[in-house]
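Checklist before submission:
- one chain only
- standard amino acids only
- sequence pasted in full

Submission:
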Amino acid sequence: MSRPLRVVIAGAGRFGQLHLRAWRESGAEVVGVIDVDAARAEAVARRWEVPHHGTALPDTLAGVDTDLVVVASDESSHSALADQAIASGCDVFVEKPFALSAAAAENTAAAARDAGREIVVGQISRFAQPYRYLQAALQDGMLGSLWATRLRRDFSRAWFADFGDRVHPVWESCIHDIDLAVYFHAERATRVFATESRAAGAAAPSVISAIVEFASGATSTIESAWTVPQRGPQSLAGLLALDGTIDGEAQLIGSLGTARQRLVGDALTVWTDERSLAPDLSLWPEEDGRVGGALRAEVAYAGEVFRRDRVNLVMPVEHAIWGIAIAEAIVASARSGEPVSL
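Returned file contents:
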């Protein structure tokens, strides 16, 4: 493709605007922005000088020459917007989660195959350098055969009231670590057992623990708790920073060794009279006035896939579908108290 990719952003919230900037900085031409909030779509389009805006994706795509739709909207709308983009002849970048059911994910993937369209799912951890290093260590044989993974991600308690219960937290927080489990193990899960607690409130589970068994017999434990107290250090840094903490840990256990990565540690800390920070600069730091880190790498990679310059091997759609099936099984097992076979 000799001309720039022409992109419509679906979702004009904080992350949609971050995507808008990242795609524009990658060389794409952002030609439209849509949002269920018409005033917000108009304001974002005016701020970023985007020529088209609206509330309905099919209407916008009908009037604008578009190559790609970036879906960065509310989780419950992801699969529907992806389907609309594919039906209009566009490729799709869809933020996590790909869908809220494996059936919906499979239907969207099938529609893309039939239409000759590409899908890249925005599982950003696959593009963060610490996790890429762990994957390289596995591929190089440094750790031997992978026996187990332990994955944990805890969030500030205050965030739960703000956005943690807008969807089941499996789709908001656990989906990152579910995808890392699929990334590292690179196989289908066969059985899931999970428990949950509503410790932080009654709207949705705020503490989730799951054991995932894979076809080879390897296992992964996945845990999430929205319980970090108010005085936890600010960790979400860069161009989208929030007061509060994401405290996570990933451990790989192999036949020849182990490896561990932590999101909150003592590698970089800032303490003042007002607050403490342990900033994670791997996701979207500002680098020389541009979006950097994992988000820039993810967008650059996706752009090459959509220009047909490379095959999508880093985030294959089948991996995303496997992850959605695991997430669905975690929700079902936690509710029933029984293991779920896949």
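Reviewer check: The CA atoms of residues 200 and 206 lie 6 Å apart.
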